């Protein structure tokens, strides 16, 4: 493609990122994306047209509101830039314009869902529906696999949520998580669904573990934290010891495998008891991990 066409795609991407900003803010506030007109979130004053030029307005205004002079959240220009990156990535990665537009919608909606899920645990059913529709279009050559993937993904969360409510008498997954897994299944298809669920769970673990540790410290759950550290060190040592000589490796592996199993048993037992502890956060946003997992698939 010509340089002019790539410049136009970048400009379109910036405008798309500006729209994603509106979508995030209006989803959190519950307002329509059409009305009222754009306004400062701090003073509520309606913005002039030149306040809404992607990236340029932020630089002209020096990161401050024209009316109240309060700082504009740096996330606004960042999301505009990410919107441009999504559009560029989609058109570079996909020859077909239909596939490119489908990927734009999938990644953009997952971006919005990640922000709203992290900030206020809000997952828009409409945005998930757009991902599902875009996933069906993207997988139009294997639409049956896409449909089954969406149904199975949603069904897995429904089953886990039902079991959790029976055993722990509390909500383990929200309704939004059902649509999130359904959206992932529609994008990756039934053939790759379980692989990318594993990716998402691993990413969720990496995102959640610091928050979980902070909760353990605040609630004085020293025993659980102790076994968590032991479990991590033992697993790391097992990984490193795979290069040690056969004789030593057998002795070390036998010892540390026992430590891992013992620490895992203690962790699981304490985890079940911690689910009843209101001081430890058990509800964590799932959208960011699923979004990253979906990005890995599309790459």
Structure description:
- The structure is a single chain.
- The protein is mainly α.
- The protein folds into three domains: 1-93, no CATH class; 96-214 and 290-299, no CATH class; 222-274.
- The chain is built from eleven helices and no strands.
- It has helices spanning 3-29, 56-60, 75-93, 97-120, 125-138, 143-168, 175-188, 193-218, 222-240, 246-274, 287-298.
- Helix 1 (3-29) packs parallel to helix 4, helix 3 (75-93) packs antiparallel against helix 4 and helix 9 (222-240) packs antiparallel against helix 10.
- The chain is globular.
- The two termini are 21 Å apart.
- Residues 278-282 have low confidence and may be disordered.
- What is the number of E strands? 0
Weakly predicted, low-confidence segments: 278-282
Helix count? Answer: 11
Number of domains: 3
Helical content class = over 70%
The assigned structural class equals mainly alpha
Query: Could you tell me the radius of gyration in angstroms?
Result: 23 Å
* Averaged pLDDT: 78
* Distance N to C terminus: 21 Å
Q: Main sheet?
A: none
The amount of beta strand, in percent, is: under 5%
Order of helix and strand elements from N to C terminus: HHHHHHHHHHH
- Write down the overall geometry: globular
């Amino acid at each position: 493609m010509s340089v002019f066409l790539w410049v136009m795609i970048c400009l379109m991407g910036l405008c798309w990122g500006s729209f994603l900003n509106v979508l995030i803010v209006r989803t959190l506030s519950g307002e329509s994306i059409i009305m009222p007109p754009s306004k400062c979130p701090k003073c509520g004053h309606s913005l002039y047209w030149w306040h809404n030029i992607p990236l340029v307005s932020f630089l002209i205004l020096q990161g401050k509101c024209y009316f109240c002079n309060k700082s504009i959240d740096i996330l606004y220009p960042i999301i505009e830039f990410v919107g441009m990156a999504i559009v560029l990535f989609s058109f570079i990665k996909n020859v077909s314009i239909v596939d490119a537009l489908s990927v734009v919608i999938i990644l953009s909606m997952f971006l919005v869902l990640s922000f709203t899920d992290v900030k206020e645990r809000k997952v828009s059913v409409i945005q998930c529906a757009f991902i599902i529709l875009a996933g069906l279009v993207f997988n139009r050559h294997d639409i049956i696999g896409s449909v089954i993937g969406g149904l199975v993904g949603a069904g897995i969360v429904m089953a886990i949520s039902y079991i959790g409510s029976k055993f722990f008498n509390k909500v383990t997954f929200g309704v939004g998580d059902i649509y999130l897994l359904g959206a992932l299944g529609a994008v990756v298809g039934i053939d790759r669904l379980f692989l990318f669920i594993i990716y998402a769970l691993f990413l969720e673990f990496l995102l959640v573990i610091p928050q979980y540790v902070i909760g353990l410290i605040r609630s004085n759950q020293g025993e659980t934290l102790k076994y968590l550290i032991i479990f991590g060190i033992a697993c790391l040592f097992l990984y490193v010891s795979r290069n040690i000589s056969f004789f030593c490796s057998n002795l070390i592996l036998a010892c540390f495998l026992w430590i891992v199993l013992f620490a895992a048993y203690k962790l699981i037992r304490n985890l079940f008891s911690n689910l009843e502890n209101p001081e430890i956060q058990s509800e964590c946003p799932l959208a960011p991990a699923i979004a990253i997992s979906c990005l890995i698939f599309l790459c």
